[in-house]
TrEMBL record:
It comes from the Eukaryota. The keyword Signal applies. Residues 20-183 form the DUF7909 domain. Pfam families: DUF7909 (PF25486). This is DUF7909 domain-containing protein. The keyword Signal applies. Residues 1-18 form the signal peptide. Keywords: Signal.
Amino acid sequence: MVSYLKLKLLAAAVSVSACTLPTDPSSNNITTGFGIQVQNPAAPIVHNRYMNLWSAGGGDQHLYLSPAGDAAFNLTLDNGVISRGIIHAVINGEYTADDNTTKLFMTERGDPKAYFQPVYGCNPDTDAVQLELDFISRAALPGGFICVRSASGDRHEFRYSPPGNTAVREDRPCYEVTLAVVQAPAA
């Protein structure tokens, strides 16, 4: 009986660690169009939803989780910055003191750019190797993370939380998320 239990535990451990990450470094440029799937299994309300763009006037695009906004599977990564044509991801505006976060959105203006580094990770649901965008910095300020929180009208918006941020709103948490690079889902 003990041998059978050990065998089952070993099989479970092998299946848990089946994701073997490539060792070759990835470029900080992705020229083929992609989308972003948000992952955080501990937060089912945001887990496995896609990042969409919402026209905000003046050419800006605000970032919301699907189904709000328009699907965005034609993004590129240009020297670590998420881009779509002439607009790029920035962190600025709509700062909120109660959770110490700032809006992440896309614009062609010169706001502080959001920099990412592609890294390999493991899909939390399938254990498959995936490419992820690891947040690096807000312009020259390193650290912090990208999170998603509720917004008006049953939408969820993308935010930046700075290094060492301890501010939390229990009624409106900003969930730290993994940004997985994905192709458009099959219709």
